[in-house]
Amino acid sequence: MTADQLSLTFSALADPTRRAILARLAGGEASVTELAAPFTMTLPAISKHLKVLERAQLISRGRDAQWRPCRLRAEPLQDAEEWIERYRLLWEERFDRLDDYLSEAQARGAKSPEDHHD
């Protein structure tokens, strides 16, 4: 995934309405009207959100006669997850080192006062 595609993905995911739309599409394709149903916004506003998702390649829109179903495209999400995973591993390593340090510090602090010879 290019940095530009990654930016498009994260930018699209930044909005809770778009995340809700993607969550709905994870259950299967839907029309614009079906996607708009849970929201208190106009169809044109939903269409703008769909255009952002489409530009980020997170959804595709088909054509079946008069029906234009929207479908989730998970590939960009997988790429974003892989990018995030690298940082999760980094933080896990840091937390493991911190845990080791705290365990050692606690063990040193648990020694009785007569064990300390200053």
Keywords summarizing the entry:
118 residues, mainly alpha, Arc Repressor Mutant, subunit A, 5 helices, 63% helix
Task: Please give the count of helices.
Answer: 5
Helices and strands, in order, run as HHHHEEH
Largest sheet: 2 strands, antiparallel
- How much is the radius of gyration in Å? 24 Å
Number of domains: 1
Structural class: mainly alpha
Strand order in space, largest sheet: 1-2
CATH topology category name = Arc Repressor Mutant, subunit A
Name the helicity range.
55-70%
Q: Which architecture name does CATH use?
A: Orthogonal Bundle
* Mean of residue pLDDT values: 87
Number of strands: 2
Question: What are the low-pLDDT stretches, counting only 5+ consecutive residues below 50?
Answer: none
Summarize the SSE layout with pairings:
Layout: H1 3-13, H2 16-25, H3 32-36, H4 43-55, E1 59-61, E2 70-72, H5 75-109
Helix pairs in contact: 1-4, 1-5
Task: Please characterize this protein's 3D structure.
The radius of gyration is 24 Å and the shape is elongated. The chain is mainly alpha-helical. It has helices spanning 3-13, 16-25, 32-36, 43-55, 75-109; strands spanning 59-61, 70-72. Helix 1 packs antiparallel against helix 4 and helix 1 (3-13) packs across helix 5 (75-109). The relative contact order is 0.13. It has one domain: Arc Repressor Mutant, subunit A, CATH 1.10.10. Helices cover 63% and strands 5% of the residues. Strands 1-2 form a two-stranded antiparallel ribbon.
